[in-house]
Amino acid sequence: MSAPEPPRPTPDLPEFAGITPTDGMAAAASAQGGPSRTGKGAVFAWGLWDWGSAAFNAVVTTFVFTVYLTSSSFGPSGTVEAQLGWALAAAGLLIALLAPVTGQRSDTSGRRKFWLAVNTYIVVALTAAMVFVAPDPSFLWLGLLLVAAGNVFFEFAGVNYNAMLTQVSTPRTIGRVSGLGWGLGYVGGIVLLLIVYFGFIQGLFGVPDEDGWPVRLAMLVSALWFGLFALPVLFAVPEYRGVGAGRERIGFFASYARLGRDIARLWRQSRHTVWFLLASAVFRDGLAGVFTFGGVLAASVFGFSAGEVIIFAIAANVVAGASTIAVGALDDKIGAKPVIVAALTGLVISGMLVFFLRDGGQIVFWTAGLALTLFVGPAQSASRTFLARIIPPGREGEVFGLYATTGRAVSFLAPTMFALFVALSGQPAFGILGIVLVLLAGLLLLLPVRGAQERLRSDDA
Fold first, then answer.
1. Please, is 296 exposed, middle or buried when counting C-beta atoms within 10 Å of its C-beta (0-12, 13-18, 19+)?
2. Residue 300's CATH number
3. What are the pLDDT digits (tens) for 303-332?
4. Which of 429, 45, 399, 455 is nearest to 232 (CA)?
5. Listed residue (434, 420, 190) closest to 290, CA to CA
């Protein structure tokens, strides 16, 4: 049976290889033999990976381990924060070079779930190894290496996990499913941070408060947490056997030539998609900066203790989780771009309030800082759904790999701007301005991008 003639491109409808966003998702479902409506069990199992990933996102990179690693036990203030930034920038370079090809190869090999498992459990092992990082300057580089390597493999896992979004959703539900995943991630962060706070920081588990053992043992619990909650998706969601799995396999280095041809074709056929990848790369790096340096700023600028940082983190996850789940339905109704624009605007305003009102003490961070978290999740989730809607079937891993690459290609921005503003001023508080500038740049780049949300809303009705 011959395929129907692809629709003619229009200026308002981004396309990739002649496939419209709606056609792409519908064809993907058909190619995989999937139902028009996804089972709730598979959706929930998929979302539990996000729940488990809070162990790395919330505990390791944001509120516990990086705060521990930038404490006075490892070096002078200003120096250790900058070193953390450079380590993460190096990790970003590796991701930028490797992520699109690893995603492309997982599509063509039909082993998307296999590589999700491999990369996830490497992150689990690296998190467990953080137990060896004692509070001494001689252990700083071990800690930085583990965090950087964890970021690399976590991003690789995320490429395959994001690619599964079209396997567990329909054009009508993709916003809600994506929002559910992000929301479960935040709720998982709340539960795990409560365990860490009461069990280790407050001493409920009887861990001795010396040599960093409360934090170090919390890393073992975090590794176990991620390892357990990553299992359901591996059993409940079938391995990908769709269109891309039939694509010719080529060598690793030849994959870069194929990638170059694909990007060139994408530029010719849908420049708005390319611009979205660029804009999202910038603002997602700003979002990553909010998470990466949020706990560090709470401690170094606003005088939060380690326990207070975790209490703030719990409150932040409650706010972020609720807003992300709620806005997921709004994404399906009005489209992803309006959600992203509103969220980025709120982030810029909230970030400026944190900076200019910083002399007001902790109450400023509790209010304006929580306002920041209100907008981060919706921006992340809507960005993922915007892209998922425009990917042709069989190319999810490749394009989400490109999504990871474009994000990491500029991943030096937030850490560099943070470190630069801190270095020039000699005050960690000025790092806030660096992050806000990255978010603002991403917002300005996004504004000219056009989408096809109205047409998507009428589809699958």
1. buried
2. 1.20.1250.20
3. 898 888 888 888 888 888 888 888 877 888
4. 45
5. 434
